[in-house]
Write a structure and sequence with these properties.
Blueprint (H helix, E strand, L loop, with lengths): L11 H17 L7 E4 L6 E3 L19 H5 L8 H16 L9 E3 L1 H8 L5 E5 L3 H10 L6 E4 L4 H7 L7 E5 L8 H15 L4 E8 L2 H13 L5 E7 L11 E7 L5 H16 L6 E8 L6 E7 L2
Parallel strand pairs: 1-4, 1-6, 4-5, 6-7
Antiparallel strand pairs: 2-3, 7-9, 8-9, 8-10, 10-11
Helix pairs in contact: 1-3, 1-4, 1-9, 6-7, 7-8
């Protein structure tokens, strides 16, 4: 496995995923009782965007200018307050990493964001199986209270850690999607997690490349007979675009109260900033409602 997320750090998918992750954290923290946050594929925790154009053997075009670069250049934060909070966290990461220039250089991964949002009653577990990425993550998290690190594929930790003593959990699955059976692995892990903690909040990031694969994934999730399940998607270019990844989504099982309204507002604002070609848009869809029905609550497109 040779995946390095720093090639993609700060791209439109990271921006979308991390804003919604901040929203999930804040929703979980509306209750005073602590919760477990499990990140199954955590990465290194913080990324130097100056390294994003370099690889093991060849130069790569950095993706952050079309993501955080656009949002950061928009001046005042667009959209709901969640976007402003996220931008504040990104800028704090940049400053605390030693960059005092106007243009951002350092970008926080989900572990950095989770640690910053963590309350004393919340517990964080980060899993990363890639040795070099795990070493960087261990260095990043050194001395952090309430944080545990595991150099493993995090799918297996769902069985080991759920249900947690807190009886509350937010699980993020954000795998690299290098394996052809990644969706099957995710579905199996979700099934295990729902058996062990039916009320847990599970978030799954997925790429939008071939729509049929995503619809098959949704069918597999429905077959688990899960609680309410929401799909939040951002598309930066239509089906005729040459872009390899035209969009991405975050599937959320047991979304917190009013999370869907927040997601609608966030994705609508991001569409106007992140659109790269005709056909860009966003949608928030109930894959499974409480009554077991699938229904689209919003579909928005820019041409």
């Amino acid at each position: 496995m040779n995946y390095r997320h720093h090639y993609h750090a700060g791209n439109f998918a990271d921006v979308m995923k991390h804003i919604l992750l901040v929203g999930l954290f804040r929703a979980m923290q509306k209750k005073p009782k602590g919760f477990l946050y499990l990140d199954t594929h955590a990465g290194r925790g913080r990324y130097d965007l100056a390294e994003a154009a370099t690889g093991d053997s060849q130069a790569r075009v950095p993706e952050w200018p079309q993501g955080i670069g656009r949002l950061g250049a928009a001046g005042e934060p667009v959209g709901p307050g969640l976007v402003a909070e996220y931008l504040g966290l990104v800028r704090a990461c940049d400053r605390e990493s030693g960059n005092l220039e106007l243009a951002g250089r350092f970008y926080p991964g989900s572990p950095w964001l989770a640690r910053r949002l963590q309350r004393p009653v919340d517990r964080l577990v980060f899993c990363e199986r890639h040795a070099a990425e795990f070493a960087a993550l261990r260095s990043e998290m050194a001395g952090s209270p309430g944080v545990a690190l595991h150099a493993v594929d995090g799918y297996g930790k769902i069985r080991a850690l759920l249900p947690p003593p807190e009886r509350r959990a937010l699980v993020l699955m954000d795998p690299p999607f290098e394996a052809p059976d990644e969706f099957a692995k995710i579905t199996a892990a979700l099934g295990e997690g729902l058996v062990r903690l039916p009320g847990g909040v599970f978030g799954v990031w997925y790429p939008l490349t071939v729509r049929a694969r995503v619809e098959d994934f949704f069918s597999g999730v429905r077959a688990l007979r899960p609680p309410a399940t929401l799909a939040c998607e951002l598309v930066v270019a239509g089906e005729f675009s040459a872009l390899k990844m035209r969009g991405c989504g975050l599937l959320v099982i047991n979304p917190p109260w009013q999370f869907e309204q927040e997601a609608v507002a966030v994705l609508a604002s991001l569409t106007s900033v992140m659109a790269q070609d005709a056909g860009a848009g966003s949608r928030v869809e109930w894959v499974v409602r409480e009554q077991g029905l699938a229904e689209s609550i919003i579909s928005r497109s820019l041409n």
